[in-house]
Amino acid sequence: MRGEVIGINTVKFADEEVEGMGYSIPISDVIPIINQLVDRRILKESEKGYLGINLETAEEVDVTVSRQFGMPEGIYINDVIEDSPAEKAGLKPGSIITAFNGIKVKTKDDLINVISYAKAGEKVTLKINVMNDNGDYVEEELTVVLAKKKD
Fold first, then answer.
1. Do 11 and 54 fall into the same domain?
2. What is the DSSP string of 120-151?
3. Is 112 in contact with 50 (CB distance < 8 Å)?
4. Helices and strands per DSSP (H, E), number in the chain
5. Is 92 a domain residue?
6. What is the domain range of residue 25?
7. Which of 26, 38, 63, 114 measures 20 to 30 Å from 98, CA to CA?
8. Measuring CA to CA, how many Å separate 125 from each of 5, 85, 104, 118, 135?
């Protein structure tokens, strides 16, 4: 009623046999992405930041796995590189990364995309979930200073 944007359509399904059905993303999820797009800078490979996790062994926790095992959606980390920025910040195997600088990450590609625009030496915030002693996942924030990519 006030003319505020509350979401952005992402998919619209229309067919002669059914009434159109649309899906949208809440504006609270979109604003960090818009800000990143506005602030996005093209970085040379030598300028890009390095987090220090092994994405080859990381696993995506999708909605199905999340519901089945009571885990948050995100990227389950199996291996943290020794002496890396991630390890220095306190990231441990078993952690689930759910956001990078306020942008939700659900897939490895999401994480690769947001990291590719972060500079070496930049401070970033990771939102992670870790399992506590009761077997419940607890959300934490880690500040990580990205390193220069190693050749």
1. no
2. TT-EEEEEEEEE-TTS-EEEEEEEEEPEEPP-
3. no
4. 4, 10
5. yes
6. 7-39
7. 38
8. 27, 12, 12, 11, 24
Report which secondary-structure segment, H or E, holds 37.
helix 27-39
Cα 31 from Cα 47, distance rounded (Å): 26
Residue that the structure tokens 């389950």 belong to? 76
Q: Which two three-digit tokens encode residue 40? A: 């996005």
Spatial separation of the C-alpha atoms in residues 88 and 52, rounded to whole Å: 10
Q: What span, in angstroms and rounded, lies between the C-alpha atoms of 5 and 24?
A: 11
Same domain, 133 and 66: yes
Query: Which pLDDT band, with edges at 50, 70 and 90, does 41 fall under?
Result: low
Among 130, 141, 104, 122, smallest CA distance to 51 is for 122
Mean pLDDT throughout 85-106?
94
Query: Does residue 127 or residue 113 have the better pLDDT?
Result: 127
Question: What is the rounded average pLDDT of the residues 108-119?
Answer: 88
Residue 60 phi/psi, 5-degree rounding, is -85, 125
CB 149 within 8 Å of CB 46: yes
Same domain assignment for residues 103 and 56: yes
Helix (H), strand (E) at residue 35? helix 27-39
How many angstroms separate the CA atoms of 48 and 11, rounded?
Answer: 33
